[in-house]
Amino acid sequence: MIEILTVLHTLPTVKSYRTLCFERILPYMRSKSDVHITWLVYQPERLNIEYTKNSDLTILDIHDFKNAIQVIEQVKPDIIWAAPTLNLPDYALSIAGRHMKIPVLMVRRPEMITAKSCQTVNEAVDWVNLHCSYN
């Protein structure tokens, strides 16, 4: 069994870059081994859900922990999946994981295609009106 610990600002039922990465990689990983993901969810307020745990995933609330070391000690992950950003929860888990000699996997988003960007709402509205049909 491979235990993956990751952190996310929403529940994992909400599509995000991270959940899409897992949708793509998990079938392959599960063809090789059982995989369990623990999602540490951080939001300003405590989550309004029952504690969730099944054979595939666990959802934890960041408010139940004092620090990243405590999370890692409870979860005992084999791998920590973190964003390579200065987002504090990802950053804390990656530093704590490295300190505890746990591999930290960071997947960077693809480079953005260079395109015209809008600086104001009015510019964005003008662009939408010019490029989108309302039929």
- Which strand order spans the largest sheet, edge to edge or round the barrel? 3-4-2-1-5-6
Query: Which class do the helix and strand fractions yield?
Result: alpha/beta
Instruction: Tell me how many strands there are.
Output: 6
Strand content: 15-25%
Main beta-sheet annotation: 6 strands, mixed
- What is the distance, rounded to the nearest whole angstrom, between the alpha carbons of the first and last residues? 51 Å
Poorly predicted regions: none
Shape: elongated
Number of helices: 4
In angstroms, what is the radius of gyration? Answer: 18 Å
Which CATH class?
Answer: Alpha Beta
The fold-level CATH name is Rossmann fold
Order of helices and strands: EHEEEHEHEH
Helix content: 25-40%
- CATH architecture, by name, is 3-Layer(aba) Sandwich
Number of domains: 1
Mean pLDDT: 85
List the main descriptive attributes of the protein structure presented here:
135 residues, alpha/beta, Rossmann fold, six-stranded mixed β-sheet, 4 helices, elongated
Please give a structural write-up.
The chain has 135 residues and is an alpha/beta fold. The protein has a single domain (2-110), classed as 3-Layer(aba) Sandwich (Rossmann fold), CATH 3.40.50. It contains four helices and six strands, in the order E-H-E-E-E-H-E-H-E-H. It has helices at 17-32, 68-75, 88-99, 121-131; strands at 2-8, 35-41, 52-53, 57-61, 79-82, 104-106. It has a six-stranded mixed β-sheet, with helices on both faces. Strand 5 (79-82), helix 3 (88-99) and strand 6 form a beta-alpha-beta unit. Helix 2 crosses helix 3. The radius of gyration is 18 Å and the shape is elongated. The mean pLDDT is 85.
